[in-house]
Design brief:
By secondary structure, this protein is of the alpha/beta class. It has a single domain, classed as Rossmann fold. Strand 4, helix 5 and strand 5 form a beta-alpha-beta unit. The longest helix is centred in the N-terminal third of the chain and has 13 residues.
Amino acid sequence: MKKQFASVALIGKYMDASALQEMQSELARLAQHLQEKGLEVWAETNTANYAQLLNIKTADLSSIGDQVDLAIIMGGDGTMLSVSRMLLKSQVPLVGINRG
């Protein structure tokens, strides 16, 4: 049976405000695209704040994996590794967009 994703989390380089501000346009375009496809979009709290993602549900990194069906992580290897450790218990699938 094919699983379809209904909700997606966007997680940027959450510990680096300047990096998130640089990713702002890409994160906003990605959020808009996913919403246009009918997906519920969430963002990690720092990602939403620093990238100015408005009208999106937010959750902290420790709980966002329980809210969504898929997490998209934008950052470098370190971001991917740290986020994957934090989301391990939720077993949410991860997709990485390398911006390292």
